[in-house]
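Trying the structure run again after the queue cleared.
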Amino acid sequence: MQYMLLIYTDPAQEPKYGTPEFGAMMAGYNAATSAMRTDGVFRSGDGLQGLHTATSVRLKAGKVETMDGPFAETKEYLGGYYVIDVPDLDAAVKYAAMIPSAGYCTVEIRPVMVY
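Done. Tokens:
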């Protein structure tokens, strides 16, 4: 079964770029990705560019509305994702726990509907 691991980060909580803590976090991401590839469960995954690059779209009364930034007003924002193919939710939890951001933010696990 495929699961998407959605990585929600709080910019105030994550390590700052260029610091030793940021380097350690990225090493953790590389290790998690490597483990997923080695185990044959990795399907895809990427980080997302910063919030300032986001555009939200709505369709109201047949008219397209666009807004700068993410739709939701929240402290945590979607910062990246993995798609993995594992037997069950327990296995998905195992891999989600490898993601460094799980230590200070949230990794949401969602089953993928494969049509």
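The longest strand covers residues 77-85. Worth checking whether this holds up in the mutant runs.
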